[in-house]
């Protein structure tokens, strides 16, 4: 655990009060990236770090990763459990058990509906934050009893859904429809974004790409440098024809996937190109064309590689400055 660094006063929202954190800044639960060092650095700085459950090869390994995180910070952190249809589903019940047995009380769910998991988490006093890409899914998640929602706009990395609604519309629409706290995801990487999200009615922000380009992110430096060098134009939307759209980095592989599907190909035709194992090689070996890898439009706003804790403090400070500048226009 690091020594306490000077920090700004708490930035209180319904989300920070719900989870007992200082700042409404959440590190997204990214596959292969959400490990102890990154999650702990974000939480230690006052945000909410997220350990990604399925990055760990087994529930036992997840329990060890949670313990490693706890040794690095005594502040709240969460665990991401992404629920997606697969040929060989992970043992979700065992991962759930590892989470609660490790004493974690904050879980971010994503992918399919969290309904099959809600009763178990409720019994163990786990607060669920469910990531949604539409207002209708967010409203359903609220009915299921989640504690908060993460509303994911079209700008995001990974799966933005099929409605193509950007955050500028999606966030206030969610604010009008929900009664529980919610945070905004997709396109956020700095204090301007945090201030904008709060102005639009959100209770905080979730950032993936920005923390992917942090010092603690366990990915090759070439990946981080590509994010800095890239613009907001350097992503690809793949799987559009399959109604399973994903936003990934533009590279030789994603270009090929788009071409094959545009020419009438089907998933079996691209499956060898899009395996998770190939994407993992990008992060581990730094070969940017080894496979597909997720990154959001916000990469066009990322200018540096910085410690995750510094990013949290910088983002909050910038948001305060933006808010103060805006109030000057009302004088």
UniProtKB/TrEMBL annotation:
It comes from the Bacteria. The keyword Oxidoreductase applies. It holds the Pfam family NMO. Signal peptide: none annotated. Its EC number is 1.6.5.9. InterPro entries: Aldolase_TIM, NMO. Gene3D superfamilies: Aldolase class I. Keywords: Dioxygenase, Flavoprotein, FMN, Oxidoreductase. GO terms for molecular function: dioxygenase activity; NADH dehydrogenase (quinone) (non-electrogenic) activity. The keyword Oxidoreductase applies. It is an enzyme of class 1 (oxidoreductase). This is NAD(P)H-dependent flavin oxidoreductase YrpB (Nitropropane dioxygenase family). It comes from Streptomyces rishiriensis.
């Amino acid at each position: 655990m690091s020594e306490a660094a000077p920090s700004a006063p708490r930035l209180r929202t319904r989300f920070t009060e719900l989870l007992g954190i200082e700042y409404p800044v959440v590190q997204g639960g990214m596959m292969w990236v959400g490990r102890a060092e990154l999650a702990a650095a974000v939480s230690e700085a006052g945000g909410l770090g997220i350990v990604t459950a399925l990055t760990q090869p087994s529930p036992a390994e997840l329990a060890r990763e949670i313990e490693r995180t706890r040794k690095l910070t005594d502040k709240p952190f969460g665990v991401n459990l992404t629920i997606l249809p697969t040929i060989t589903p992970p043992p979700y019940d065992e991962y759930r058990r590892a989470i609660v047995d490790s004493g974690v009380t904050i879980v971010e769910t994503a992918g399919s509906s969290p309904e099959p998991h809600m009763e178990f988490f409720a019994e163990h006093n786990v607060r669920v934050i469910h990531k949604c890409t539409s207002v209708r899914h967010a409203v359903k998640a609220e009915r299921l009893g989640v504690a908060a929602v993460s509303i994911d706009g079209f700008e995001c990395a990974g799966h933005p859904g099929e409605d193509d609604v950007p955050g500028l519309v999606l966030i206030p629409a969610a604010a009008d429809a929900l009664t529980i706290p919610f945070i905004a995801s997709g396109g956020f990487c700095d204090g301007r974004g945090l201030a904008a999200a709060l102005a639009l009615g959100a209770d905080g922000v979730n950032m993936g790409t920005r923390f992917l380009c942090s010092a603690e992110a366990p990915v090759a430096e070439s990946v981080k440098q590509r994010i800095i060098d890239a613009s907001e134009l350097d992503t690809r939307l793949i799987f559009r024809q399959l109604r399973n759209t994903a936003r990934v980095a533009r590279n030789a592989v994603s270009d090929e996937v788009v071409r094959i599907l545009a020419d009438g190909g089907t998933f079996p035709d691209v499956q060898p190109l899009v395996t998770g194992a190939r994407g993992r090689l990008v992060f581990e070996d730094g070969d940017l064309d080894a496979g597909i890898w997720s990154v959001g439009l916000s990469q066009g706003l990322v200018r540096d590689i910085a410690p995750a804790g510094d990013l949290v403090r910088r983002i909050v400070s910038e948001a305060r400055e933006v808010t103060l500048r805006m109030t000057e226009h009302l004088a």
